[in-house]
Input
Amino acid sequence: MMNLPYDEQLRLKEKKVRILLDKYCKVSPIIGMKNPYHYRNKVQAAFGTTRSGMIISGVYQSNSHRIVMVDDCLLEDKKADEIIVTIRKMLKSFKIRPYDEDKDFGILRHVLVKRGFTSGEIMVVLVSATPKFPSLKNFVKVLLQKHPEITTVILNVNPYDTNLVLGPTEKILHGTGTIEDTLCGKVFRISAKSFYQINPVQTEVLYNKAIELAGLDGTQTVIDAYCGIGTIGLVAADKAKKVIGVELNSDAVHDAISNCKRNKIQNARFYCGDAGEFMQGMAQEGEKADVLFMDPPRAGSDERFLESAVKLSPKTIVYISCNPETQARDLKYLTKHGYKVKAIQPVDMFPHTAHVETVVLLSQRRPDTHIDIKFDLSELDITSAETKATYQEIKDYVLDKHGLKVSSLYISQVKAKCGIIERENYNKGKEGHRVPQCPKEKEDAIMDALQHFKMI
Ligand code: SAH
Output
């Protein structure tokens, strides 16, 4: 969307969310980014060779495997882009060929760089089609000489015919194999394969909003479903009684557990598994939760998850999504099964792209405990004298006999004076505002009516 001014991009994204979600609740104005450039802390480059034999690296053209060469990109971290260009230039002298999918020939498939926004730590992952990467030690040594700011280097082996960037095996070549970053005052360890939000500045905005909407007061049991490395749950832990996190990716769960210890958090536990299955287990064992944070991948949640969420019946669900289309589908289910959408907040996590993130607050609406009733305060707490005439009968009498219109407020003021009313509702204005006092002429007319109905 870079061809559009940033304000216009925001307007379009807000509109997209409104079209999809407005039917559930009013959509709040989107929160944009102050400086929407070079925000991506994770950069992934595919490597290939042109027909003329030139080595290229960059991104895939959409819906294709054609590599579009990238030297630097306004969305990506500058240092990460520099490192990728350095690696591209080093390949020739090391006689390392990019991998060719069609011919199943060559070595280097991708380079992945992750950078800690606050820590400045940098991870470089070389994704190779084979474990036999020629002169690997020397390659890493030269790379570190050129970029001493790199804190860890990993070799990931992906021999499969797959669209996934990373393969199953990893070898740490330098450093710890992880980087750290600080988010909302907590330190997080991130591995190569763990999910970590790619826009750290807006992530703080997103998490703060999500936690604010959850209304935590230290007494609640909180579930962080699809928790990744535990970020939302651990940031929320200070304001919760207990946090339970669940995540499918075992590397991410390891990170979550280590992040919990690292931040000396005592009230959080993390489990590895399918979130739907886990929730089902909790529901079957009759466990309860007060607040459910759910942050599923783009495909959204599944019926098993939503079904168990409804069974667990948390009072509050905070649904964070990077795809309002699947979120709309899931909201349809939740609103049909006892929840009401109370707030929708779009956040621009991905400036210059068509993607938009949303936080939605849902509250439980029990049909048997929520009934809308209209009533007049004047009909409440009726003393025995009051039963003799309704406010309306008094008003009618005063109008008939004295030709004066009187309000319920004035009637209650006169009743209070006569001691036939105990409550003070009418005489207390909202937030300390003064309420009008009954003029003498009307007071006399109301007195007459009260006598007429034998109330005084
Ligand atoms: N809440 C985290 C991660 C959100 S991304 C954060 O803000 O950083 C979505 C996460 O869901 C990923 O970590 C992915 O591994 C995980 N995931 C995908 N399918 C899942 C499933 N069926 N059950 C549990 N976790 C799943």
About this structure: The radius of gyration is 32 Å.
